[in-house]
UniProtKB/TrEMBL annotation:
Pfam family, one: Methyltransf_23
Swiss-Prot/TrEMBL GO biological process terms: methylation
Protein's UniProt keywords contain Magnesium: no
Keywords: Methyltransferase, Transferase
GO molecular function: methyltransferase activity
Biological source species: Neiella marina
Entry-linked InterPro entries: SAM-dependent_MTases_sf
Translocase as UniProt keyword: no
Protein's UniProt name: 2-polyprenyl-3-methyl-5-hydroxy-6-metoxy-1, 4-benzoquinol methylase
Length: 208
């Protein structure tokens, strides 16, 4: 996340080596282990994320509810990495919020990335980022001053837990964040940060 060069080997399993940046604590796979687009698409096509599935909506509600509690009527949002079924966008639209969506595979029109929003959501997507440093900058540029950025991703606890962590077994999961990494980003980029849930982080950008 920080382009520092202090990298240490973190873990090895049957398929990949994992490394950790000693500055921002991000854990990531070697470039050679990044999945090809065709492989990514094949894995995502297996995900069943139905807009009408009540369990899935409850899951996403843990990200949507804290934002809904903080934004004004008709505040505009973007779901970045919406996936094949834009369930989260539908949940905000139902509450009267105009929503744009972007996904490099499922909604690849980049037009929505040319403007700014009152809130941006990125659920179960940041762990797929191949260039997290760059993609984080993209996310921040999409949020208006005083706006919100919500991230949902499972967090790295420590090396021991990582060794048995099923989350890393998905070949499309390549960037693994921890509380420390998000705290580092908040401090560096002058964001306020709340840990809403074990896997939900809410950032607010500074006012102008
Ligand atoms: Zn780093």
């Amino acid at each position: 996340m920080c382009l520092e060069q202090r990298i240490e080997h973190y873990h090895r399993d049957k398929t990949r080596d994992y490394y950790q940046c000693q500055h921002c604590q991000l854990v990531f796979v070697a470039r050679a282990s990044l999945p090809a687009l065709s492989k990514e698409r094949a894995v995502y096509d297996c995900h069943q994320n139905d807009v009408h599935d009540s369990g899935y909506r409850r899951f996403l509600g843990r990200t949507a509810d804290p934002i809904l509690a903080r934004i004004a009527n008709k505040a505009e949002g973007l779901d970045f990495g919406c996936g094949p079924g834009p369930a989260l966008a539908a949940m905000f639209t139902e509450q009267g919020h105009p929503m744009a969506v972007y996904d490099p595979i499922f909604a690849a029109d980049r037009t929505p990335l040319a403007k700014q929003y009152d809130f941006v959501t990125c659920t179960e997507a940041i762990e797929h980022f191949h260039y997290p440093h760059k993609e984080w900058q993209t996310l921040l540029q999409l949020v208006r001053p005083g706006g919100w950025l919500a991230i949902m991703t499972k967090l790295v606890a420590n090396k021991e837990r990582f060794s048995t962590w099923h989350y890393k077994l998905d070949p499309t999961h390549v960037s693994f964040f921890s509380r420390s990494t998000f705290e580092y980003l908040a401090q560096r980029d002058q964001l306020t940060l709340e840990f809403i849930d074990s896997d939900v982080m809410l950032f607010q950008t500074p006012n102008d």
